[in-house]
């Protein structure tokens, strides 16, 4: 270690020690006894040593069959070379755990309902919810379904052995991560079930939603006609689907019943067993009734979760272009998944090489492979499909026996699963989960709501990813993804032989008729009937346009013959997709620098469309001097949400005020319990906010006298009248907030990004820091004025032809280590912030740095 690094380590160690002392005095949840925390041999002092950057050394891992080398790049990327596939996965487990053990433990505890065991009763709501939802039940079933000789089973066992080698080593040396010491517990041994639960965590993050409950509440308050007009199935604004058809229409594929997981009539060794009923077909709901009590209770239950475990915003961009559009005549691909941005990051970068594998990219700690990246022949990235994957059923309960529900013409007895939730500092809590054929009952306040969601199905997704890592062409890529279940993902593709493609892989649940986007009847008529056949799901290969792309917009046009979801199901407003489409459609001679600029693009397409309408509405309106100054600024604006732009501030507050002034009177008059926008009085969820913003864009330009603009009292209003008033209100509010000179209303004064600590200790996070972008820019900043969600990993791969490795670049905001004392804790943030990238190298490429020699 250089003298400069030694100095920084000393400074960080002193600072962190002071922080721990301060936290101990003030208290952070259930802190441990001081004696164990400050034990000179095993306490927090060991973390300064553990935070040192790796040095070349020899390490013994008992489970290895042959020696393995692990080399580290200058930014902490791990390059693992093994002689067998078993040893590769074992080494991945060891290296991930070395850098992210507490994060991995937190993720498995979240999904398994065991947070209360280490942080106390504050986590009980989350634990109850997760045990009801059933990630643990599904993970056990997934493990039981793997054949004994399965390569996936072998990979999961090897990975677990590597994690456990690290746990044992840390316990011997007293170097467990500091959070284990602060919370005074030791991690349990890792099992394949834990990895499968983390797989379920990601499915829940991207697919679990309460949108059907919220739509049902909209129907009850606004009325079915108004709810349907304002929150329609198809988006009212122009979209850019990547799959333009013609579309196939084939019989549905039978879908394995969720009942196989959700109705475990007995638990033997933790694996559901017993004869189970099948899931029949679906029809429309037969009546709404007064069920707001049950629906609101379900929403409150979800609030017990952190944002990361409830799907709350549209996620991600990716695109690929053929060689006809690039400077070197070879395909180029880009991807930037938008997820919660935390320290440590959701991603861990690594490269692996063994007889069966040669890949490089980013992995999710707790899983044995990369999820996004490239191998020797192909590259890929992901965005969320946004298809409906969660269905709620209103069960008819027997008034004479509350343990019975009516389904398929007869009263059925609910099945139950018993859990004991250990709670730190108090007695354990018993939980009984009741299950119907549809799934677990999430609330019994008023009528009973059960949830049927894609994450309850057995899913071979880890097997799929292991196959995808070995794919050499699009046919093998397509074949591997035919078995992908959930979450629904848009897999973008480019290969060294000149081809590009995109497949929206996953299960798409279908109903025979009715309204699956609202709460359904549980009597049997409305059940799921099957899934869209794989060869009919949205996909494209080497299109004539020369490019493919996805940005959470609806992937197909209105001519698509199957139901995939509604405008309330998180389909993006389409503005990011518009910017990508407009940039790529006529582009030629593209380079990685062009792709990097597009990933950092802060043009708000909605603003570019709407601002001329706003300025036109102001003509003839009596304006104050400040109004005039603000309007003059807007007339000179190009729509960029740059950090120094005062127009960006005016626009953001205006569009929210316009939304509030248009829909707020109706929300108040009809006592709508569902919030509409994340930044104002209407706000909590984007499920409703997205379609309402779509409405405003479409109506302002094409239907300015739409009845929605009038007041519930019957007083007529137009779009122009509301916009003029909203603009003046915005200027008054900003003058109070930021001063009377509009030129000083820079976006960075009110808008910021932050990367909070997973440990929920503010001092261990990053920011808030003034930032550009907003919810509708390609460089997305989701979550309002202080964003903690956005591009979690940026990647660009430019192939160089059949015989050369590609030029591959990537960056994520964070660092490889979860230790706050490490120089690799947040060393990548500044590069990410400034739009810089680092090479994504394979094991065989020169990367320098120290090497670990792992031996049996």
Characterize the structure shown.
- The protein is globular, with a radius of gyration of 27 Å.
- Helices cover 34% and strands 18% of the residues.
- The chain has a domain at 605-749: Penicillin amidase (Acylase) alpha subunit, N-terminal domain.
- A hairpin with a 2-residue loop joins strand 4 (266-268) and strand 5.
- The protein is built from 24 helices and 35 strands.
- The strands form nine sheets. Strands 1-35-2-3-9-10-11-12-21-22-26 form an eleven-stranded mixed beta sheet, with helices on one face. A six-stranded antiparallel beta sheet has the order 27-6-7-32-33-34, covered by helices on one side. The protein has a four-stranded mixed beta sheet with strand order 19-20-13-24.
- It is an alpha+beta fold and 856 residues long.
- Helix 19 crosses helix 23 (719-738) and helix 21 (646-669) packs across helix 23.
- InterPro entries: Ntn_hydrolases_N (IPR029055), Pen/GL7ACA/AHL_acylase (IPR014395), Penicillin_amidase_A-knob (IPR043147), Penicillin_amidase_dom1 (IPR023343), Penicillin_amidase_N_B-knob (IPR043146), S45 (IPR002692).
- This is Penicillin acylase family protein.
């Amino acid at each position: 270690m250089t003298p400069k690094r030694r100095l920084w380590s000393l400074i960080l160690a002193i600072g962190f020690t002071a922080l721990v002392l301060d936290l101990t005095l003030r208290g952070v949840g259930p802190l441990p006894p001081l004696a164990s925390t400050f034990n000179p041999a095993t306490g927090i002092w060991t973390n300064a040593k553990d935070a040192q950057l790796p040095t070349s050394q020899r390490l013994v891992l008992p489970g290895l069959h042959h020696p393995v080398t692990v080399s580290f790049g200058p930014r902490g990327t791990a390059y693992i070379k093994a002689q067998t596939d078993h040893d590769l996965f074992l080494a991945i487990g060891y290296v991930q755990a070395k850098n992210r053990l507490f994060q991995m433990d937190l993720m498995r505890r979240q999904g398994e309902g065991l947070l209360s065991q280490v942080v106390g009763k504050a986590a009980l709501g989350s634990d109850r919810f997760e045990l009801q939802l059933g990630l643990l039940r599904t993970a056990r079933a997934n493990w039981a379904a793997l054949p004994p000789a399965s390569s996936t089973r072998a990979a999961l066992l090897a990975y677990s052995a590597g994690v456990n080698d690290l746990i044992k080593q840390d316990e011997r040396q007293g170097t467990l991560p500091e959070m284990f010491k602060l919370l005074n517990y030791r991690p349990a041994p890792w099992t394949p079930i834990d990895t499968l639960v983390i797989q379920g965590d990601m499915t829940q993050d991207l697919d679990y939603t309460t949108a059907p409950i919220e739509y049902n509440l909209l129907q009850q308050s606004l009325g079915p006609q108004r709810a349907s007009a304002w929150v329609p199935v198809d988006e009212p604004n122009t979209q850019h689907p990547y799959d333009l058809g013609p579309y196939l229409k084939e019989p549905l594929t039978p879908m394995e019943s969720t009942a196989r997981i959700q109705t475990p009539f007995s638990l033997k060794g933790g694996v559901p067993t017993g004869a189970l009923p099948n899931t029949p077909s679906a029809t429309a709901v037969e009546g709404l009734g007064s069920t707001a009590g049950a629906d609101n209770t379900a929403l409150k239950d979800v609030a017990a979760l952190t944002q990361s475990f409830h799907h709350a915003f549209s996620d991600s961009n990716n695109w690929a272009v053929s060689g006809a559009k690039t400077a070197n005549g070879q395909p180029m691909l880009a991807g930037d998944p938008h997820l919660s941005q935390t320290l440590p990051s959701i991603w861990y970068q690594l490269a692996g090489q063994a007889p069966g594998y040669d890949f490089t990219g980013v992995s999710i700690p707790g899983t044995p492979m990369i999820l996004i990246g490239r191998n020797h022949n192909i590259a890929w990235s992901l965005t969320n499909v946004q298809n409906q994957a969660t269905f709620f059923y209103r069960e008819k309960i027997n008034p004479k026996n509350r343990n019975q529900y009516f389904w398929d013409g007869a009263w059925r007895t609910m099945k139950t699963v018993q859990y004991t939730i250990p709670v730190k500092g108090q007695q354990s809590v018993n939980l009984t989960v009741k299950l119907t054929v549809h799934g677990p009952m999430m609330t019994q306040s008023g009528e009973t709501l059960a949830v049927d969601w894609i994450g309850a199905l057995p899913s071979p997704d880890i097997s799929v990813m292991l196959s995808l890592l070995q794919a050499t062409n699009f046919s093998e890529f397509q074949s591997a993804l035919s078995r992908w279940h959930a979450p629904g993902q848009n897999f973008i593709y480019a290969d060294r032989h000149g081809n590009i493609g995109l497949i929206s892989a996953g299960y798409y649940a279908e109903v025979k008729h009715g309204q699956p986007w609202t709460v359904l009847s549980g009597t049997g008529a409305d059940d799921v009937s099957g899934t869209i056949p794989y060869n009919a799901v949205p996909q494209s290969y080497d299109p004539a346009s020369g490019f493919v792309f996805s940005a959470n917009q609806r992937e197909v046009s209105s001519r698509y013959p199957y139901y995939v979801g509604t405008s309330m199901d998180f389909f993006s407003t389409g503005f990011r997709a518009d910017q990508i489409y407009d940039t790529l459609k006529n582009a030629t001679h593209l380079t990685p620098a062009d792709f990097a600029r597009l990933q950092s693009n802060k043009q708000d397409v909605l603003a570019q469309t709407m601002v001329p309408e706003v300025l036109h509405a102001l003509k003839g309106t009596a304006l104050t001097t400040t109004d005039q100054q603000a309007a003059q600024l807007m007339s000179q604006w190009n729509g960029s949400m740059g950090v120094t732009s005062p127009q960006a501030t005016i626009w953001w507050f205006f569009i929210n005020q316009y939304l509030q002034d248009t829909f707020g009177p109706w929300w108040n008059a009809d006592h709508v319990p569902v919030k509409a926008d994340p930044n104002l009085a209407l706000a909590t969820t984007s499920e409703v906010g997205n379609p309402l913003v779509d409405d405003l864009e479409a109506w302002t330009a094409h239907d300015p006298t739409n009845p929605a603009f009038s007041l519930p009292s019957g007083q007529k209003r137009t779009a122009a009248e509301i916009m003029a008033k909203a603009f003046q209100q915005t200027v008054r509010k900003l003058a109070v907030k930021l001063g009377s000179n509009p030129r000083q209303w820079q976006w960075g004064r009110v808008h910021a990004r932050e990367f909070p600590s997973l440990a929920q200790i503010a001092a261990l996070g990053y920011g808030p820091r003034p930032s550009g972008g907003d919810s509708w820019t390609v460089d997305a900043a989701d979550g309002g004025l202080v964003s903690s969600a956005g591009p979690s990993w940026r990647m660009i791969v430019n192939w160089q032809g059949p015989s050369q490795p590609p030029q591959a670049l990537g960056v994520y905001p964070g660092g490889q280590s979860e230790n706050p004392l490490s120089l690799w804790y947040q060393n990548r943030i500044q590069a990410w912030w400034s739009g810089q990238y680092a090479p994504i190298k394979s094991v065989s490429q020169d990367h320098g740095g120290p090497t670990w020699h792992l031996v049996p």
